[in-house]
Every structure is written in C-alpha cells, then in structure tokens.
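Fig. S4 source data, part A: sequence.
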Amino acid sequence: MSKKRSIKVYGQSGYKYRETPTIMLKGMWLKEAGFDVGDYISVTCEDGKIVSLQLTPAFDAGTTSYTAKTVNDEDAVSATAASGTAVTILVNGVAHTSGNDATWESGTNTVTVIASKTGCTSTAYTVTVTKTGQG
C-alpha cells in the first residue's frame, strides 16, 4: 500500500444544483488500512488536509492517555493549547515542531504533549501511535 494517494476533487450537483466539491475514496487499500463497509468515521479538515489520526478516546483535558493507529510512514502532528499555555511536543523522545510531519517506526510510537501554564503545574498527555502495514 502506498504512503500517500493523489485523489482528484470532483464537482457534483449539490444544494440548489450548485456545483459542490466531492471527494470519493474507494478501493481495497481502505480495507487494508482498517476500514470496513458500514464503518462510521470522523473526518477533520485542517489547512486543506484531511487529518488521518483520530484519538481514542476523544480528547478531554482530564484524560492524559490516548491511542491512535496509522498505516502512514508519517503524519502531521500538531497541538493547540488554551490561551496562556505553552506546548512542547516530543515524538519518540525527540522535540517536534507542531504542524510538521512525524516519521513513525513500525509498531508502537509515543507522542508526548506537555502543556505548561506560567505559575501552574504542567500536564503531560501521551498518545501511543501504532503504525501497522506498509505506508
């Protein structure tokens, strides 16, 4: 399975017959990536990208441990903090710039996000990212 796919955005008749951007994903590569017919997925769009990693469970400030799965060799990793809070990101123990791609090793990878607010204690959030298959 290839790491990235080029997919054309088509036009399709939408509300009041206006042309609406349409993206269709299909193929056995989706099954190989862990998707099955009938699955529901969440899609997040950021800066012209469809974000592929979903946290389990969904983010909650009181929860500090998460998991995510990918078949990609790399994915963008970013963190946005509340006002007045600084964020430090480590990918497998190495400092990472928010928004840049992180390169995954096969198997388990660890992303640590440390949120620090002046005069308060820091909170560390850990995401265990499991890379399976070939990207």
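Fig. S4 source data, part B ends here. Helices lie at 28-32.
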